[in-house]
Specification:
488 residues, 15 helices, alpha/beta, Aldehyde_DH_dom, binds NADPH dihydro-nicotinamide-adenine-dinucleotide phosphate, 6-stranded mixed sheet, globular, oxidoreductase, 23 strands, 5-carboxymethyl-2-hydroxymuconate semialdehyde dehydrogenase
Length: 488
């Protein structure tokens, strides 16, 4: 299998001819060769997108016409649901049932932003001193979209849909470890009738292709999802051109369980929250904080449930936990398991590859109990099926522990005490909180984190804000008195 860049409506190899190989996480065998782009390929893609911006119809098209194209993109995705899910499952190691859910969400992203762009108004301010001020939203220009390897297709479309809805041509740099599903986007865009040059892909290594995109002066906006450290590098480079940045970064999200909660449901949410999507999920509830009165019981039940999570071949519909993305990432996750044991945390489930699955990046659902805030496994994002459990006794201690990392993406609170709920939601440092619920998203609501988990929000009109500039026009409706300088 061979995958090339898609620039100005054509599939092209790298100017340098360079390629890289991708591995199948379930077996670690190579199965595709992908063009490895560098600054020259990025230059060509940005030039194509720039022409589409300055000369093409897309940025000037009425919102309703753009929305019609977006809806056709949604339909084209839907008609390929099974193919997208199968490719994604093979390329990422995600269980097939979960890959299907992600493909479904990708189609929804386009339909949703078609609705957003057709219902979004612009503001008018009537000023008492006989002025009418109105705001015009304009697409910013070429948008650079840089995405990570977990749930690649869904995250790519989460950026593509609003950028295109806003009228921006785009250059997408997919993740190097899971580039394959993006390979379906050119035919999807063509089938939907997106004008040539509006959608471009440059594959490649982040430090080369991604860095060149960030550094390019004709790309005024970068939307990035990935690690906090990469986000910091991108901010430094983007500062040279004062680019608009949207940063969705790492997390170490707490799930806090009080003894008055519905413990059965809290347990379901804790297991789902950290072991779905292979634990390779930015909003994973990777720290479970449990009130001391129920701690021993909860830990025992969590361990029991984790031991029963079905680890298996990603393409088996019965599999709940598939193969981690890459041997390098797998080694990193396994190293955290070793660190956890060395730090004195109590391993109560998993910690080892399951038997009978040789060759792939498999790890049983892993639970560490008695984890303390100084431990690295409490502080650092593991991004795998590993959960840390920590006891607390009071509400104040729960808040302190919840806030005790540098991250602030999501938090999950399980309690039936109404007043406590509202006290805690005010002081937990997280961009998104769920109360007595697992992670369920409505696409209208702001998505993003605080502290080291990100900058800015996407979702609903927040995404459109990223890809548009507001121009304010001030019009005098009567002769206003003008201070007369230089007449004396
Ligand atoms: P990385 O930060 O390693 O990579 C993300 C993307 O950035 C990849 O396409 C990567 O290319 C590229 N990249 C790497 N270096 C540079 C650079 N110097 N300049 C420009 N681009 C670069 O993240 P991962 O792919 O490892 O994804 C996992 C991370 O993503 C986790 O921290 C996770 O929490 C976070 N994430 C956050 C989400 C959120 O919404 N907050 C959602 C999902 C994930 P390459 O593939 O070649 O490395």
């Amino acid at each position: 299998m061979k995958l090339e860049h898609y620039i100005g409506g054509a599939h092209v190899p790298s100017v340098s001819g360079a390629t890289f190989a991708t591995l199948e996480p379930a077996t670690n065998t190579e199965y595709a060769t992908v063009a490895a782009g560098d600054a020259q390929d990025v230059e060509a893609a940005v030039a194509a997108a720039r022409t589409a911006f300055t000369e093409g119809p897309w940025p000037r098209m009425p919102a309703a016409e753009r929305a019609a194209v977006l809806r056709r993109i949604g339909a084209a995705i839907e008609s390929r649901d099974d193919r997208i899910a199968a490719i994604e499952c093979r390329d990422t190691g995600l269980p097939i049932t979960q890959a299907r859910g992600q493909a479904h969400r990708a189609a929804q992203n386009f339909r949703f932003f078609a609705d957003v762009i057709t219902t979004l108004g612009e503001n008018v301010y009537r000023v008492a001193s006989a002025q009418l001020n109105y705001v015009v939203r304009k697409p910013v220009g070429v948008a650079g979209l840089i995405t990570p390897w977990n749930t690649p297709f869904m995250l790519e479309t989460w950026k593509l849909a609003p950028a295109l809805a806003a009228g921006c041509p785009v250059v997408l740099k997919p993740a190097e470890w899971s580039p394959l599903s993006a390979g379906l986007l050119p035919e999807i865009m063509e089938e939907a009738g997106l004008p040539t040059g509006v959608f471009n892909i440059v594959h490649g290594i982040g430090e080369e292709a991604g860095a060149a995109l960030v550094a390019h002066p004709d790309v005024p906006v970068i939307s990035f999802t990935g690690e906090t450290g990469t986000g910091q590098i991108i901010m430094r480079s983007a500062a040279a051109h004062l680019k608009t940045l949207s940063m969705e970064l790492g997390g170490k999200s707490p799930l806090v369980v009080f003894d008055d909660a519905d413990l059965e449901r809290a347990l379901d949410a804790a297991v789902f929250g950290v072991f779905s999507l292979n634990g390779e999920r930015c909003t994973a509830s990777s720290r479970v904080l449990v009130q001391d009165t129920i701690y021993d019981t909860f830990v025992a039940r969590l361990a029991e449930r984790a031991a029963r999570v079905r680890v298996g071949s990603p393409d088996d519909p019965a599999t709940e936990l598939g193969a981690l993305i890459h041997p390098e990432h797998y080694a990193r996750v396994m190293d955290y398991v070793r660190v956890g044991m060395e730090e004195g945390a109590r391993l109560v489930a998993g910690g080892e590859p399951p038997t009978g699955l040789p060759g792939g990046n498999f790890l049983s659902a892993t639970v560490f109990a008695d984890v303390t805030p100084e431990m690295r496994i409490f502080q650092e994002e593991i991004f795998g099926p590993v959960v840390c459990v920590t006891p607390f006794s009071t509400e104040e201690e729960a808040v302190r522990l919840a806030n005790a990392t540098r991250y602030g993406l999501a938090a999950y609170l399980w309690t039936n005490d109404l007043r406590r709920t509202h006290r805690m939601t005010q002081v937990i440092e997280a961009g998104m909180l769920w109360v007595n619920s697992q992670n369920v998203r409505d696409l209208r609501t702001p998505f993003g984190g605080v502290k080291a988990s990100g900058l800015g929000r996407e979702g609903g009109h927040h995404s459109i804000d990223v890809y548009t500039e507001s121009h304010i026009v001030h019009v005098a409706t009567e002769d206003l008195p003008i201070p007369r300088f230089g007449v004396a």
